[in-house]
Design a protein that fits this description.
Chain B: It comes from Deinococcus aerius. The complex is a heterodimer. Chain A is built from 8 helices and 18 strands. Chain A is of the alpha/beta class. In chain B, helix 2 packs across helix 5 and helix 3 crosses helix 4. The longest helix of chain B is centred in the N-terminal third of the chain and has 15 residues. The chains are: A alpha/beta, B alpha/beta. At the A-B interface, helix 3, helix 4, strand 7, strand 9 and strand 10 of A face helix 3, helix 4, strand 9, strand 10 and strand 11 of B.
Chain lengths: 321, 253
């Protein structure tokens, strides 16, 4: 079987899970002897709705609805996933390329003595081997890697595969028993960076501000103002986060989030490599910057050399019409 | 407690990446300690300076001869000695974790510090894989760390924000921006570093084989339109940009 570990939050199946189903089907369709069924494992507590949503797209769903799975823990998730992969003789284990997914997937690979293909943007069989594409060198290089083994662990980069449509018939659901280890990392406090805006990794449009915006007040007026007008997510550069203008959760780049929206609007952003590595795969890039020499213009589809303080109010006004 | 800190060598972020025979070619590139690993070296030093019971700090590097330079930098920053597993073999993170875990065990370390995401592999796997091989807990994307006795406390980033944590040692911690500001080696310390131990190990000792093969690498730069709009008249520029986004790119309503 091909085992997918569901990503879900707040009782909702995440879009990334549907993308992983597409990745699994791509493996099956390319041959190589790895066979279905496409199986989604749901780990959590009170996850009936998540399991139902998973059943709509998968051949079967394994549900572990247990108090010990109420909150994510890397060691517990790794143990649960490896146990099910072993019992079900999975030939591919697909895990989401979120921060947590990429945190426990390597542990699963070690437990299964499996090769690990991390953060794949494409996946297919190449004879007996499984072949993946991924970005390396701060997303400047696209690498094709492959591994051959009875079981291979893969994480899939969010936004790289189209979400799977519901299957004609819902998959069967089965409850599973698990031997869970006691978690050793104790969470003593939690700060969720909530935003009323659309999440960066899900947004179709992102408006990002850099130091060129001028001040935290300007950031609120221009970056947030334009984002609200366009129904967009708000991003920030590392310089802006380091300066304390904006929370780390908004940082786009090598040390922040990687995003791939349809439109990325960079306001007062110079375009350092560490930033480009997080947003360079956006479909359209718009840059507005006073400095005509800013590297961001080299990767921009549409560029305006001008003052954010003048162009953005005009843009907000024009978008109103 | 002994601390093991992993040091990798990567191209400078601003360096141009070259491809030769479908593989990344680092010939002539400026190579530096991976910034994420540098936070780990700095944090080990700060834990000791901050009064934690740190008896020794050991830096480990696995790679070709040139990786010595990165280890010398770590020694000049203040680590006590270095181990270089010299090899031209390209090891994936899961394979490399076997070496890190074996060294950690042989040295009897209580804390392993590794960068959160390597700037060449764009991988986050090494810390977690090492922790699993050792049977230890891991804390990833850590931006605050304290050691008191056998307990580790701190804060780290998670999917939707951040968490404060408490965990028992031994453990693996992956480091990142925000944890500290790495120091520059001073000239006296660079001189002193030359006399510190830098042990050479042979890859064969560790019995490690790569598990992933690189088939090819290419630089795929997406062709960009590079269409410049005159910004002298803000209203006209704004209107033109919106028209293009709506009607040409069709990315906004």
């Amino acid at each position: 079987m091909i085992l997918i570990v569901a990503e879900h939050a707040g009782g909702q199946l995440a879009k990334s899970t549907l993308e992983m189903v597409t990745a699994a089907r791509a493996v099956l369709e390319s041959g190589g002897g790895r066979e279905g069924p496409v199986t989604i494992l749901v780990l959590g507590q009170n996850v009936a709705e998540v399991a139902n949503a998973a059943a709509a797209v998968a051949d079967q769903v394994l549900v572990a609805d247990l108090p010990g799975l109420a909150t994510y823990n890397a060691e517990v998730w790794a143990a649960a996933t490896a146990q099910i992969a072993q019992e079900g003789e999975a030939s591919v284990v697909i895990i989401g390329g979120s921060r947590s997914g990429r945190e426990y997937a390597p542990r699963v690979a070690v437990k299964l003595d499996a090769p690990y293909l991390e953060d794949a943007i494409a996946l297919k069989a190449n004879g007996q081997a499984l072949q993946a594409q991924r970005y390396t060198y701060l997303a400047r290089v696209t690498e094709t890697v492959e591994a051959e083994a009875p079981v291979i662990v893969v994480t899939v980069k969010p936004g790289s595969f189209a979400p799977a449509a519901p299957a004609p018939a819902a998959g069967e659901q089965y409850d599973v028993e698990l031997d869970l280890p006691a978690p050793r990392v104790e969470v003593t406090g939690r700060s969720v960076e909530k935003s009323s805006r659309v999440a960066l990794t899900e947004a179709d449009v992102i408006v990002t501000g850099g130091r060129g915006v001028g001040s935290p007040e300007n950031f609120a007026t221009y970056v947030e103002g334009l984002a609200d007008r366009l129904g967009a997510g708000v991003g920030a550069t590392r310089a802006v986060v380091d300066a304390g203008w904006r929370p780390y959760a908004e940082q786009v780049g090598q040390t922040g989030k990687t995003v791939q929206p349809k439109a990325y609007v960079a306001l007062g952003v110079s375009g350092a490599v560490q930033h480009l590595s997080g947003m360079g795969k956006s479909k359209y890039i718009v840059a507005i910057n006073k400095d005509a020499e800013a590297p961001i213009f080299k990767v921009a589809d549409y560029g305006i050399v001008g003052d954010v303080n003048q162009i953005v109010p005009a843009l907000i006004e024009a978008a109103r019409k | 407690m002994k601390i093991l800190t992993l040091v990798r060598q990567v191209p400078d972020a601003e360096a141009r990446v070259k491809i030769n025979a479908q593989q990344v070619d680092l010939e002539g590139a400026t190579l530096v300690i991976d910034g994420m690993d540098e936070y780990g070296v700095e944090e080990a030093l700060r834990l000791r300076e901050g009064g934690a019971n740190v008896e020794e700090i050991v830096a480990l590097a696995v790679g070709p001869k040139r990786v010595e330079d990165a280890l010398r930098t770590a020694l000049a920053m203040g680590v006590d000695r270095a181990i270089h597993v010299e090899t031209d073999e390209k090891l994936d993170p899961i394979a490399l974790s076997r070496i890190v875990a074996q060294v950690a065990q042989a040295e009897g370390v209580g804390l392993v510090l590794v960068g959160g995401q390597e700037a060449d592999w764009d991988s986050q796997a090494l810390g977690a894989a090492t922790a699993e091989r050792l049977g230890w807990p891991q804390l990833t994307w850590t931006n605050e760390l304290k050691v008191e006795g056998d307990t580790l406390t701190g804060r780290h980033d998670v999917d939707d924000g951040n968490e404060s944590f408490r965990a028992p040692l031994p453990a693996v911690v992956t480091t990142q921006q925000g944890l500290n500001e790495p120091r520059y080696p001073t000239l006296p310390n660079i001189m002193k570093a030359k006399r510190k131990e830098l042990r050479k190990d042979d890859l064969a000792t560790y019995g490690v084989q790569p598990r992933v093969r690189v088939v090819n690498s290419e630089i795929q730069t997406r062709a960009r339109l590079n269409r410049m709009i005159d910004g002298k008249d803000p209203q006209a520029a704004a209107q033109q940009l919106l028209d293009l986004l709506r009607n040409e790119a069709k990315v906004i309503a």
